[in-house]
Specification:
The protein is an alpha/beta fold. It has two domains: 3-228, Rossmann fold; 240-283, no CATH class. Helices cover 40% and strands 22% of the residues. The chain is built from eleven helices and ten strands. Strands 6-7-8-3-9-10 form a six-stranded mixed beta sheet. The protein has a four-stranded antiparallel beta sheet with strand order 2-1-4-5, with no helix packed on it. β9 (207-212) and β10 form a beta hairpin. α5 (142-154) runs parallel beside α6 (172-187).
Amino acid sequence: MQELIRVSDLTYHYMSNTTVLSNINLSINEGEYIALIGPNGCGKTTLIRHFNALLQPTSGDVTVGGLNTRNSKNIMEIRRLIGMIFQNPDNQIVGMSVEEDIAFGPGNLGLSMHEMRRRVDAAMDMTGLKGLAKRPPHTLSGGQKQLLAMAGLLAMEPKLIALDEPTASLDQEGKKIVLGLIKELNARGIAIIHITHNMEEAALADRALVMDKGEIIADGSTADILSRVEWLKTLGLAPPRISELLWTLQQQGEDLNGHIFTVETAAQEISALLKRVRGSEHV
């Protein structure tokens, strides 16, 4: 896979000289699906704000597609390549209607009307908003507003979308819709970085980055990291419930796969365990 973002010796201080990020080194490739997890205040949001030049490093460098975020001439292209979604979609809505809001970003790229129309229609199709094109955004549900924010980014045709707790304020149905779209976008080749405190959501990713006190303390497969139940608890993170259940059974001497996060697969694993136990009882 081709590298999209490179973070080299990134350190960031607030104006108070408080260190928020310390010596971050990181490479992110096109098409990856990454969960970014860690306790509150560990620097997750600050880190992703460097990816599209919302913040500048105190020291070190961030490059996107080979473009250094320190160079002001690169910022427009970097922000086209890297889209950002935050917890509150109301903060990202600027248009008077759904389609007008989606068109805002492409309109700043100097595209032809035909190309803008194509992108807006494609983004509405992908997010299921086409039937709401003329609706004022304030009349949408929370989940629909988050889809609208994502549609506005999709119309920019980004290489990566970074999402900061995008489901935090949504009901279960809204969460399901947004998470489904995230998975679909990644399947289409868009890289995803998803900040979340919900480990079931994190389990959807292929790779996990764990932060604590401004540093990346783990980087590996999601299956490996989320199976480290005791360690996650020391960080104040709640492991996936299924992972914790299987881990508890393992501690009791049962031979189980701890790298499982779906209800269906866990049910199969436990069913196989019960068959083995029943079989041994008849020996």
